[in-house]
UniProtKB/TrEMBL annotation:
Family: Belongs to the inositol monophosphatase superfamily.
Organism (species): Paenibacillus rhizoplanae
Record protein name field: Inositol-1-monophosphatase
InterPro entries (alphabetical): IMPase, Inositol_monoP_metal-BS, Inositol_monophosphatase-like, Inositol_monophosphatase_CS, Inositol_monophosphatase_SuhB
Pfam families (UniProt xref): Inositol_P (PF00459)
Broad enzyme group: hydrolase
EC number: 3.1.3.25
Catalysed reaction equations from the record: a myo-inositol phosphate + H2O = myo-inositol + phosphate
Keywords of the record: Hydrolase, Magnesium, Metal-binding
Gene Ontology molecular function, alphabetical: hydrolase activity
Amino acid sequence: REPYVVTSKGHTAAAINAAAKAGEWIKSRQGQVKELGSKTSAQDLVTEVDKGVEQMIRRLILTHYPDHAILGEEGVLPGADALTAALDEAREHDYLWIVDPIDGTTNFVHGFPFYCVSIALVVKGELTVGVIYDPTRDEMFVAEKGKGAYMHGIPTKVSAETLPGNSLIAMGFPPDRVVAQPANMAGLQQILPQVRGIRAGGSAALHLAYVAAGRVDGYWEVGLSPWDCAAGVLLVLESGGKVTDTQGDPYDISTRHVVASNGRIHDYLVTSLQAADATGFKKQ
Ligand code: IPD
Ligand code: CA
Ligand code: CA
Ligand code: CA
């Protein structure tokens, strides 16, 4: 079959093309990493493939749109201050691409086949295109603002589940041991006994795509960065779901603590995180 239906033109086609090429390359490098490095800690990995793929995506986008800006994970120094500065700079551009070359680097390094490429386009502050490509399953998730979300030409739709007790929930653990890990552990402890199951697959972007596709009913994670979630957020919204921060406030690209769901169990997730003091925000 055709690997992905490209009915879209312009920006969306450019994003799909870049994600497909990047994904193919990443898959071909699985098990062959040559330079394994770490950033903030031994839990925060980076390889030559992350860096090379980011360069490749950058080149592919800039060939079409030389005056657009690109915010990519491997182009920003680790740490909250560098991210804030990069976001401030990025916001000045009318056309901003947000790129995670490999979301799920730890999985990639271990040969655990759950990782993806994530590419979003923000036009004048508004999320406009979101593409997530899982090379292992050859699944290309595409969302366009106001036009819906698709996987291989078939519309994606969030689940209809209304009961937490029947819900499968995804979450994750970023490397930050100070704020993110304790908050996510507290959330896990609160929510696990009340739902059908919890999965922490190690790719925020793919978890968001799975919310969009109705494969999980909700997802939350404290301590994300814009490249982890920008594309996935648009996928969820265009699939009929809801995305806020962990306090229930609207998502924007600087949101670090994210809740995404089918909409129906959203209040349950936000309320539970608040009850467990697991929002990642300091108590007011
Ligand atoms: C990470 C993954 C992981 C999530 C972390 C992210 P990376 O991204 O999405 O699932 O728990 O918060 O940093 O570093 O593999 O691109
Ligand atoms: Ca990383
Ligand atoms: Ca990531
Ligand atoms: Ca990454």
